[in-house]
Amino acid sequence: MRQRKRTLRKRYFLLGLGGLALVLAVSVSIWRLQSAPAAADAPADPPAAETQQPSAPAASVPELSADSGTAAVSPAAPAAGTTPQPQPAEYDYTQPVPAADAVDESWFKDAIFIGDSRTEGFALYSGLDCTSYTRKGIMVDTLFTEAAVSLNGKKVPIMDAVAAAPNFKKAYVMMGMNELGWPYLDKFIEKYAAVVEALRRIAPDAQIYIQSILPVTKDKSAGDKIYNNTNISKFNTAIRQMAQDEKIYYLDVAAGLAEADGSLPADQAPDGVHLRTAGCKLWLQYLETHTVKEEP
Amino acid sequence: MKRLACILAALLLLLLAGCAAHPQKIDVQTLADDLMNNAKFDEKPEELERSAISKHYGLDDSVEARAFTASSTADEVCVVKAGSEKDAKAVYKLLQAHLDDLKESYANYQPAEVTRLDRAALRREGSCVVLLVSADEHPEEILDKYIG
User: Fold this and answer.
1) What's A219's domain CATH number?
2) Most CB atoms closer than 10 Å: which of A8, A10, A177, A210?
3) Number of domains in chain A
4) Do A135 and B43 touch (CB under 8 A)?
């Protein structure tokens, strides 16, 4: 009986010793795990979030920019092992704005549109909720002189109204259709450049997009000595050169909307000139896919 | 016999009067469709989205409205139902100003359209305001069929 008790005590003692050794072994393992470097020899199953050390963030996770929600690598703490972002080359103003990923309509929230009856149609039919300054028959010179839009209950010239609300960040301009009958092309360009200059004065940081004059339909072109596609093409060449000289963005909307022969599809413009809804939506689509994202 | 004829005539008059919609019963959707289907247009106007309507006429976003405009002529239909007669009077003024502005802008651009605009029908019935610019000789008569 006494012999049996002694054997039991011995067993309990050995069991206690074993337990103690086990606890010590586990503690040492945990201590080693916690003091090990985070990246290279991290365990396959990372510890739960609340146990991660704030001083050792995962190396390759990009920061999220607060305003856009798009991923962008923080320049202050470049990620180890990632390739540096290529620096954008200087913009090539000799070319029209190239195609890019489509932007959504929020891109146009800080944009203004300036133009004649065609831009008026764009504002009405494209479905874009935008700020526009338009007038039927308006021209590059009368933008400054013709009382065309209401401002505080008074009719004022378009450029005065633009100057009264200078917080825009993009200006989309399409002028030239009503000036096709002007005898001197250089006079038109001179006046157009004055519009660009005025926009720069009003909003120095705004992007300026000059749009090519849209073509007319084949029938309209064939039957009109002034409002025809040959004349429009001549004007567009001069407008493109002006955009290059002024270092502003040239949008070849005409190429985006024209048929293979360079004319406006007949079903989109009943009078050969003014676009209906389908055409205006195509126009918007072109603008949405031809933008320039400038570095801040 | 005479008495019977008088009663019949009175009944007929009452019936005819009932054909034109009562202002309270004007349905913006239906009236706009009726005008689009029964007025003559040189270019069939296309419907505007609600945000474009607000900007085009200077209307408040909360007002019930439908509008159609043409791209190459002054043809236009606009039906607005305001919250009250008082509000409708303000809407009427906005549409009148819009009409005046159109005449002014077309004067040097497409003067022929000014004639069409001069014939335009603009009417308020209770809390409803309707504008019809069409190729009809008398757009007012088109409105008579549906309101007033």
Assistant:
1) 3.40.50.1110
2) A210
3) 1
4) no
